[in-house]
Amino acid sequence: MKKLLLIVLCTLFIVSCSNKKTVVISGKVIGGSPLERIEIVEMSGVATLPIANFGVDAQGNFSDTIQIPKNGVYTLSYGGSYGTIYLKGGENVRLSGNSAAGFPKVFTVEGDSKNNVFLQKTQTYLDNYFSKINQDIITQDETKFIDQLKKFKSDLNKEMDNLVKSTGADSDLVKWKKDELDVNLLMISGQYEMMHGQITNKPNFKVSQTYKDFQKELKKNEDEKIKVYPSYRNYILSTIGQDFQAYMAKDQKADVTTTEKFINFMKTKKDYSQTIKDYLTAFVATSVDMHPQQTSLDKLTKLLDENIKDSEVKAGLKKVEEAIYGLKIGTAAPSVDFIDVNGKKVSSSSFNGKPTLIMFYASWNSYIAESVVPMLKEISNTYKNKVNFVFADMDDNAAQFKKTAVAMLNGIEGQKLYAKGGLKSEMAQKYALYGFKLPSYVILDKDAKIASKNFMNIMDPDFKTALDKVSGITGPAIAPPQMQVQPAPAPADSTKVKTEAKAK
């Protein structure tokens, strides 16, 4: 019986492991810098947040094992540039590129490469194909324009089919790319519908039913497209943009967010599915109203929760909320463990009994030594008797933490601790930390409850207000460090200059 149970447990373990979407990604960036990070971002969801963040060493080498939510196309970013990469659970992908020659938009892929070779070759063909299209296409009569788009679709799908044969790309990627082509053709058709009358001086121009039928064909599986392609959300918004602007002009109520007006507007659109309404509403909310200065966050989140039905959209919005604002004020701070510079375990429970300011930072935030540390010294000197100061390093390993804590935080009183695993740590997950949020700050009260939003700027007036509140004292205004101004050079002796010029 025990043997049978062991076999069952082993089988379950194997199945659970096989269901995990683990990808090993490694490679080298020529000209890469340890101060730059490689990020992989989910491009289709509502949140579009990084799922991985890792660095390169002094020679540009990198390696990481990451968990992906699903097989698919992701955004690859490095040094302010962007590209796309296909990731599939269980694969080992090795990339190489040159930061001065277009990485990460341009890279060579080895290992499990067939899907990325297909993706790259397809995109190259598409770019070349569309670069030769005459820009006057918008001026063509409708019938000729539709024929052109049909030819584009036929030519490009045929080339993709040829590339499938030569690369062996997976069917889900091929479908993704063909559906993306349909979305791009829809966007071109939308531009034609919007601009043709104006450009050809035909103000009363309206597209025919044949044109609408062609667009309908491109819109097949619309609910699926709205989930996968942010560009499709943009397309739908562009088609209703003028109607929404007119609706907005009639609704002049004060203290009403654009999101609330959009929700009310979409209630008048009976021909859109709930899925489309949910994704478009989330798109508007995250683009317009969910920002650090939002003063009616509770009202906004309640509105979204009541009107959005899709559970994935709700989960995505929750991630965005935590990424922007941090954890909800008044809730218990997550319990996590750190290690100190001597490798000793330190529990966050040790902060209890006194308010705590936690600063999250990493070695690639090298500028903080000059711009942030001087202000932190003044702040710690003011509040140190009333507030704990904890500096939580989010580097990839403990060795880097030890170097960084000494080099960057020299002279500041407080606990210098390491969240083991950095941005993969329990700390990062529980506090919704991402690379773009470093450095950032959160304040806990004496009972270890969240007492502030997540600050990314200690000169935010609300930062000082929150510190004053938990400490019970009123500190001085927080000012940036004084810049050292070099004295101007003494004016030249004009007589001497002229004499030397004549001598030459």
TrEMBL record:
Residues annotated as domain Thioredoxin: 327-472
Protein origin, superkingdom: Bacteria
N-terminal signal peptide: 1-20
InterPro entries: Redoxin, Thioredoxin-like_sf, Thioredoxin_domain
CDD domains, alphabetized: TlpA_like_family
SUPFAM superfamilies assigned: Thioredoxin-like
Region of interest (Disordered), residue spans: 478-504
Record flagged with keyword Signal: yes
Ranges annotated as biased composition (Low complexity): 478-487
Basic and acidic residues bias locations: 495-504
Alphabetical UniProt keywords: Signal
The name this protein goes by in its record: Thiol-disulfide oxidoreductase
Organism: Elizabethkingia anophelis
Taxonomic placement: Bacteria, Pseudomonadati, Bacteroidota, Flavobacteriia, Flavobacteriales
